[in-house]
UniProtKB/TrEMBL annotation:
Lyase among keywords: yes
The species this protein was found in: Sediminispirochaeta smaragdinae (strain DSM 11293 / JCM 15392 / SEBR 4228)
Pathway this chain belongs to: Carbohydrate acid metabolism; 2-dehydro-3-deoxy-D-gluconate degradation; D-glyceraldehyde 3-phosphate and pyruvate from 2-dehydro-3-deoxy-D-gluconate: step 2/2
Alphabetized InterPro entries for the sequence: Aldlse_KDPG_KHG, Aldolase_TIM, KDPG/KHG_AS_1, KDPG/KHG_AS_2
Subunit structure: Homotrimer.
Family of the protein in this entry: Belongs to the KHG/KDPG aldolase family.
First-tier enzyme category under EC: lyase
GO MF term set: 2-dehydro-3-deoxy-phosphogluconate aldolase activity
EC number: 4.1.2.14
Keywords: Carbohydrate metabolism, Lyase, Schiff base
Protein name according to UniProt: 2-dehydro-3-deoxy-phosphogluconate aldolase
Gene3D superfamilies hit by this protein: Aldolase class I
Enzymatic reactions: 2-dehydro-3-deoxy-6-phospho-D-gluconate = D-glyceraldehyde 3-phosphate + pyruvate
Alphabetized Pfam families for the sequence: Aldolase (PF01081)
Amino acid sequence: MNSDQFLQAIRPYGLIPVIKLEHLEDARCIGKGLCDGGLPIAEITFRSEYAEAGIALLCKEFPELLVGAGTVLTPSQADAARSAGARFIVSPGFNPSLVDHVLRTGTVIIPGVSNPSQIEWALEKGLSVLKFFPAEVSGGVRFLKAVAPVYPQIHFLPSGGISLDNVREYLALPMVSACGGSWLTKAGTAEGIAAEVRKSLNLVRGVADV
Ligand code: 3PG
């Protein structure tokens, strides 16, 4: 998968569930809830010790799910994620050695940016799909409106502080392809997650490309 294919895969949904696994077995109900709710995407963060095993479990038990790794800080985490089956790697900031490493492996890398210098470092690496993090405290929609005319080739995936209250404002912006958020998988049961996912998809349907 390359970054264009990644964009095509996420655009119809407009949402990227960002998940910290508190227990490995939570992966099963999260995978089921996401698939039943109609949002087959999961970014499993390396904020917990279960990231690698959780990615492997989701890839094995839910082959329809597009599984990636989030909060990747080091090349060895990226390698572990890729070996476990992750098809995209997300980092909170722009770490040049991590970006170079992941590019060499051919996996999609989506580094986080929150200012023009970081955007230009990404451009220099040939990247055009970037996480905007932490979105709300970095200026949110106003930041994106200010930088988009300068960098029209960049597709942003805002994350951090996004919820049902503000997600439509982000998705209405042409430079935003999807928003990341942890709210989607907090319910604790597969049924609860599927319900939250359906509610969220209904809310964003009709905004921009979604
Ligand atoms: C991320 O890593 O993308 C964010 O921490 C998710 O932020 P949220 O918990 O505010 O949705």
